Amino acid sequence: MEVVVISRQGSLGLLYTWTVILLGFAWLWHVFPQLNLDQGAILAVLIILGVLAEWMAVPFPQGYLSGGYVIVVATQLICGGVATAWVTGLVSLIGLGIANRGNPLRTTLFNSSQHILAAAAAAFAFQQAAGEILPIALFTLVYFAVNHMLVYFYLLPGRRDHPDLFGWDALRWDGYTYLFTAPYGALMAIFYLKMGAAWALVLFLPVLAAQVILRKYVHMELSNRELTALFQVAKRLRLGYEPDTFFNQILQESRRIAPFHTAVIFFWSQERQLFLPGAAQGPLRKELCNLVIAPGEGLVGQAVESKEPIVVEDVRAMESPKDAGAFRRFRSVLAVPNLAQGEVTGVLVLGDMHPYAYEEKHMQMVSIIGGQAGIVLANEMLVEKIRHLTVTDRLTDFLNHRQFYRRVVMEMVRCHSAGEPASLLLVNIDGLRGFNSRYGHGTGDAVIQMVASVLRDVTRPADLLGRYGGGELAVLLLGADTAAALKLAEQIRVEVRSRRLVPEESKHQITVTVSVGVATFPYDTSDPDQIFFGAEKAVARAKELGRDRSVANSQLIKEAKSKLQMNVTSTV
Questions:
Q1: Do 311 and 334 meet the contact criterion of CB atoms below 8 Å apart?
Q2: φ and ψ at residue 35, rounded to 5 degrees
Q3: What are the start and end residues of each CATH 1.10.1760.20 domain in the chain?
Q4: What integer pLDDT is reported at residue 98 of this predicted model?
Q5: pLDDT tens digit string along 557-571?
Q6: For residue 133, with 0-12 CB atoms within 10 Å meaning exposed, 13-18 middle and 19 or more buried, which class applies?
Q7: CA–CA dist 568, 572 (Å, integer)
């Protein structure tokens, strides 16, 4: 088994890696005097055959498998343990060094050293056993165990980045390789010893043929996984779904098709005008679940604008790696837009820690799955739009009267529990009927929208905005007492008066004013109905006083108490 590059290693990981490298090549230096150079010709042939086996290695999602163990066993039986260490080390160094599959020099050297040390340990075990079959079996067992143990500790520092690399599939397939190639290597050694190198060479050709067949088999198995993934997604879509469950299913089935370290699926929020994370899987899922992306931003934005999948073979090789945004922690990135009726409803992003992880076939198959996700996202957007229309006012996009009242009641209950105040502002547009009569209802709607834009500009995101009536808008200020509410009411009044409108039917600007009534919970009352009634009375009082002013219900309560006290005094 050959390891692949890991994304990061701490100081202990680097110490371990270079210790293994130094031990491996130190062992070759130590045993070089014992190497029988008279066997140079057969050793050269064995090295060439081993390199061929490495070049034709079968790619798996977890790594690469080859029939090179045939050469390891044959070398041990023909030339002995010292030659085996040298042949396996050079085969790995040359085979992986030239076709290093994106691995850095450190990983290539580690691969060579792990095979050298495994061969040295296995040769020692070989010498301790007697018989014909037992030494080969013990040699294979030790070689396998040492090889995988060294790989395990190499991957341990980056285990979080490779959760599936050192898993059952890797051990199972590598075990099958050792099981079938060990006897064949022994047979190849027998042919060499009895019939010469030419027959051993002929006998090795089926090994290369077997690797070609295995490559075809693996391709068929991966294709079967792809079809299974598409079937599962289509089945889930047909049987009905919960969006969260379905999105996780999309990511799970995508793993059957394309390897990834972490993946995330974003959906378009019409309300927020952003791409929001719907689900994520992998070690960095928490980080990506907190990510929101604006249109046109980074790789996701490019995929949205082009409506085509984007493959980044190596983020580090990009002219500006910062363009990868939050995905620059990966080496390879595949971003696939989810389309429904030609519109982008979301984006599926796969990230891997290896360069060149994604090919054309990955892009095509993930795009098919992304299309299924696009249908679900389109349905969700439609549901969200319908839900939004049922609770908002068409003209202002504020909460409608019914929904605003319900939310105010809920917030008052919450404020009561938290011991916090809340103030209700009713903003009544002065003379709206006159605007409608003189300039038409289009101008009246424009006036309402202008006042609504003022409320959006001066309020906080946490405050509630509502359309209370025909020419009356409402604001619930959370955590604000009467003084703070009156200050905002004055800001609203001044800002509205400073803006100008020019009706289509007139060339002259018109000035808009508002009368604002304020009622505060719990100082004025703790009854939701009385809060609205108090604000309405304050608006009416502002109208009586000449409009274009702010009045607090608490002022009316004080006036009423003062008048009552005066009446009582005069009566007495």
A1: yes
A2: -75, 130
A3: 11-224
A4: 62
A5: 787 676 666 655 555
A6: exposed
A7: 6
pTM tops 0.85, yes or no: no
Whether residue 98 contacts residue 48, with contact meaning beta carbons closer than 8 Å, is answered with no
- Which residue matches tokens 């049987």? 239
DSSP H or E segment with residue 322:
none
Cα 281 from Cα 263, distance rounded (Å): 5
- Other C-beta atoms closer than 10 Å to the C-beta of 238 total 8
How far apart CA 129 and CA 143 sit, in angstroms, is 15
Q: Which of 413, 531, 420, 391 is nearest to 481 (CA)?
A: 420
Q: Are 345 and 267 in contact (CB under 8 A)?
A: yes
Q: Count Cβ atoms below 10 Å from residue 446 Cβ, excluding itself.
A: 20
pLDDT for the residue numbered 518: 93
Residue at token pair 């917030």: 411
Residue 508: Cβ-neighbour burial (10 angstroms; 0-12, 13-18, 19+): exposed
CA–CA distance, 284 with 512 (Å, rounded to integer): 53
User: CATH 3.30.70.270 residue ranges in the chain?
Assistant: 401-569
Rounded-to-integer distance, Cα 338 and Cα 336, Å: 6
> Computed from CA positions of residues 211, 214, 218, 219, in that sequence, does the dihedral angle turn out positive or negative?
positive
Q: How far is CA 320 from the centre of its chain?
A: 21
* Cα–Cα distance, 373 to 162 (Å, whole number): 26
Beta strand pairing call for 343-352 and 332-340: antiparallel
Give the mean model confidence (pLDDT) for residues 525-538.
86
Q: Which CATH architecture has domain 401-569?
A: 2-Layer Sandwich (3.30)
91 vs 206, higher pLDDT: 91
CATH number of the structural domain 11-224: 1.10.1760.20
Nearest CA to 146 among 118, 166, 106, 165?
118
- Closest by alpha carbon to 60, among 177, 147, 182, 191? 177
Tell me how long the chain is.
572
Tokens, residue 496: 């509205």
**Residues forming CATH 3.30.450.40 domain(s) in the chain:** 240-387
Residues 162 and 7: their CA atoms lie apart, in Å, by: 9
The fold adopted by the segment(s) 240-387 is Beta-Lactamase (3.30.450)
Q: What are phi and psi of 184, to 5 degrees?
A: -70, -35
Residue whose entry in the numeric block shows the structure tokens 């980056």: 158
